[in-house]
Amino acid sequence: MTEQALLENKLIVFQIEQREYAISVQMVGSIEKLLPITRVPSTVDFIIGVINLRGVVTPVVDLKQRFYGKETIFTNDTRILVVHMEELTIGVIVDEANDVVDIDPTFIEQPPETIDSTVDAPFIDGVVRHEDRLLILVDLENALEMDALKAGERKNG
């Protein structure tokens, strides 16, 4: 199996509100401990500010705010997933990020309508069973409203 094919079958698992979510490892540049966040006024609620990531000003979004309407309470386990989407690099705040799993793409299923009524269905790509866990696959492009982020980058950058 090629390295590309192996990467396509790997997911980064993270937690929000004690639920397990996942995105492709190919989207994630790094996982960082919490860095100082500079708040930016006049942005959508879930864009909480910017960080200085190795000399690059990077917007940061709070997925808990986006999914559940409440801010993440920062702990020692809080992580920033640095993701690359389209032309943007974005920091995504999650409660924890502590696992990379290999999945069989044939195990990905459409999410049941009742899986999580607090998270809008357009944010969910599917559900995958992995060992004794059920992982919710997140569609970050829809969840983060890429147009809003691009507009914010133009205003701030």
Automatic annotation (TrEMBL):
It comes from the Bacteria. It comes from Candidatus Pseudogracilibacillus intestinigallinarum. InterPro entries: CheW, CheW-like_dom_sf, CheW-lke_dom. Residues 8-149 form the CheW-like domain. GO terms for cellular component: cytosol. Coiled coil: none annotated. Transmembrane segments: none annotated. This is Chemotaxis protein CheW. GO terms for biological process: chemotaxis; signal transduction.
